[in-house]
Design a protein that fits this description.
Elements (H helix, E strand, L loop, with lengths): L10 E6 L1 H4 L11 H13 L3 E6 L2 H8 L11 H20 L6 E6 L1 H5 L1 H16 L3 E6 L13 H11 L4 E6 L4 E2 L11 E2 L1 E2 L4 H6 L12 H13 L3 E6 L3 H8 L6 E3 L10 H8 L5 E5 L1 H10 L8 E6 L6 E6 L4 E6 L4 H7 L7 H4 L17 E3 L6
Parallel strand pairs: 1-2, 1-5, 2-4, 3-4, 5-9, 8-10, 11-13
Antiparallel strand pairs: 6-7, 9-10, 11-12, 13-14, 14-15
Helix pairs in contact: 2-10, 3-4, 7-9
The chain binds glutamic acid.
Amino acid sequence: MSTHLLPDWNRAVVKVGSALVAPDDRGCRTTHLLPIARFIVDSRRAGKEVLLVSSGAVAAGRAAQDDRTPASGRSIPERQALAAVGQPLLMEHWRRLFDEPCAQILLTYDDLRRRSRFVNAKNTIAELLDRGVLPIVNENDTVAVEELQVGDNDNLAAYVAVLAEADLLVICSDVDGFYSADPHEDPDAERIEVVDAITDEIRAMAGGSHHASATGGMRTKLEAAEKATDRGIDTVLIDGTDGDPLDALGRGEMPGTLFRRADAGRRLSGRKHWMLHALPAEGSVTIDDGAAHALRERGASLLPAGIVTVEGAFARGDAVRIQTEDGSRVAKGITQYSADELHRIRGRQSHDLSTLLDRPDAATTDYVVHRDDLALTREARR
Ligand code: GLU
């Protein structure tokens, strides 16, 4: 057992993967869910608040329909139909484990990337928690079209943790933590107890998924941890196939891997977090080292002079990725100029803009992305 302690927390999101809900690939089983439910009940009794994000709708639907084809071999409408069959079964399965009232929340990516819907979902969740209800969340698999899907419940759980202003995200999986290499393939792989920041080196350690009914793998768990820690939410990855790690967590011990939350100075505000992690980028601009330095070190706005290349067909007001010539991610931001305009003004001084662009009302700004509309990546927030 680790010598590290679980940081104090008040509100947690507990994410439970399909590998735990439907371990033998034959529908919902209670085996692994009992210790998870006990952890939730005990935490609530201790005055803490918990939200549950549960996968397993498709797995439950397959079992109910006696469908033996793996979900990955099914078409999108087939998977959506199976989720529609399975979701009420999944809810019923969880509901039996709690005396408290449970609420079903089904979200799609659209609910997260549109600020008004995001705020609406946030208010509903706050109201449910106020009423002492246990929210049980899944993706709305039945209606989410592919482009508007979060796609995996690890990332969904991170978004929910942000929505709910949680201070802890617990990802229960069938692995006991984050390893330096894939433990199925590398006998020297070692479990890392604490990850202070998710760097390129940490990302390179993440392998794939090994369970037939699981969607994610280490990659999506890291993405989730990055989203959550960026907003000041500690993230824990534990083995949920065994009750011991959950009991240890309940005692305030740290049984798996802790991804430590960004410290106050590096944390993103709600709006910048949404820009960096939820708003889709419509294109990208590559900037020179001078501009990258100004953004990272001085928190400056992005000026046309620093832009080297422009990719994509974006409009004024769209979000764009900002990167350096060697491909390092620097930021995401909302552009004041369309891609066409940027092709004309890149590399030029701000005072040339009105002559370069035929904007009759001369409504040009000196900057391409204002510092307030620019969210730096974790690597850039040093
Ligand atoms: N939403 C999917 C389901 O309930 C699972 C997605 C995931 O496991 O990441 O079947």
